[in-house]
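Annex B, item 7. Sequence and structure tokens for protein A, then protein B.
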Amino acid sequence: MAAGSDVVAGFYTATQARDAGAILALLHPEFEARTAPGLPFGAGGVFHGPEETLARVWGAVFAEYDTAPYAETWHETDDGLVVVTGHYRGTARSTGRPYEAEFVHLWRVTGGRITWLHQYTDTARWHEALTPA
């Protein structure tokens, strides 16, 4: 893997471990996240900065789901864009229902830190897990 992919791989390791400090250490101070509109609990949208994204996206998700992203395919372009596909797997805490949602993540790494994320995921799967059986 190239350097950008190594940094991104560290993000997946940190999120699977729910290590907020490690996540923050990987993010550039001017980090921007564009997450899938329709994600539950206000986690979808545009977020600026590591702390805002940690609180409003990953914090919101981890509070409501026992979940993590699992990368399956990796592609790095000549200009440094890292494209990762995979699945989120987990359980909604309120219902105990498991879910699996496909994702595509587009990452930009600059100077050894993540500066940008654009996330696509099947938000319907996230919502289905919140519906009692």
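Protein B:
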Amino acid sequence: MKRTTLSLIAGTAALAAVTGFAVLKTPEASGADSARAAAQLPVERTSLLCPAPSISDIAETTYTSFTPVTKGTAGSGKAALAAATEESADAASGTTKGTKKKKSVKPVLTPKEPGTPATGDASGADSPALVGIAEGKFAPGWTVQETTEVAAGTGRGLQGVNCTAPDTEFWFPGASTAADRTDYVHLTNPDDGPAVVDIELYGKDGAIKSPVAEGITVKPHSSEPVLLSTLTDERQTDLTVHVSVRSGRVGAAVQALDDKIGGDWLAASTDPAGTLILPGIPKDATSVRLIAFTPGDADADLKVRLASPDGLITPAGSETLHVKSGMTTAIDLGNVTRGEAGSLVLTSTDRAVPVVAALRVTRGKGDKQETAFIPATGPVGTRATSADNSGKGTTLSLTAPTATATVKVTASAGSGGGTVSTKTYTIKQGTTQDIDAPAPAGLKGTYALTVEPVSGGPVYAARTLAATEEGVPGFTVQTLPDDRGTVSVPEADQDLSVLQK
């Protein structure tokens, strides 16, 4: 192998160790210098960011951490989740800066060994955003779920979000500055330097100018909740929020709180694409609202279909959706699932125009309503994990939009005890199934569900967590894209040890 190629592989391996994700494409070649197919190796380091959970003094929040067992990982490692401060960042990474002594910061949660969930909790409006770092055997597929119960007031109900990796761009269709909504964009900076962020708002008539939304500085190891109504005087029922980072990187999520019908976290939509899957609409949804946006210069015409237990169907009266360029478009689908499991499938009717989308889902009626959000998401890929599951309140929804697929689902041991359980399922082409997911025998505490496709076409997944309080059907939905627990590293065609002589 040429020394230049060897250097590229070494650089890729180093990048994988730092970021948890890297892919190297070697130059096409023939003969002895060609590279074999890339091997999937476990990542060595993962960062996760959790937004500050609530503005309510009566909020109760639980954090659940889980790392699935991954073959080929190192025998050692460490992980911690602590408040987003400079001191907590040093504590989590095990480093200090200069000679100044740092005060001791107790982690909010210390993960257990891979295969076993760990839990921590917080309460009140002063609970901070969290920064987590996992290394070695704790890094591949590390998942942290933040779940908050709010008994009364704005956003009352169950709110949940998967803590996310830092990035530089996020799309949030489904936000709002309506009079009955209080929506925040939470920006969390995990790094040693400041991050500079722009927030763009797009309503039904296009871009909304806001000079105060540009050049927002997020200090190192800190979090900034930005109230959308402070960025514009316009009242918009449906907004698309675009977060772009000029320098540094952040974690971003939108907390959407309603005065009357609860609220939840709105996670970022997957990258703009011509085909989008929005999985896991609860079968008892009383109202479903689709919000879509295309960031390009061309309008998008989308075919709207529901992947039901019996196959793909077209909702009556909502066969297509025209999305004008640069304008947020929304449509009410009503109780589109009609008592059955369902996922929404959006495809371009003509040419593929990139689109982002999300669903606002409502359960209950009258003053007993609660809402949650389902963004368009990527496929499960190699593996995806849902943490913080209970024996009765969990629904796992799987859809195979293009081809029949076989899927293995593993229930971990419980956080307080229990035995691992595994089942295999077949999801037919074009269908969605709310499966009877396995649960640990002798379960104590909460457990994790890990989804792994075995054969067939791509699978998309979502987990609904429900908890009814005083007649209000509280719930939250998290999509389950690939956990990015492995990294592609090309294999060499020859023994590289000769190059070290």
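Comment on protein B: The helical segments are 3-19, 86-93.
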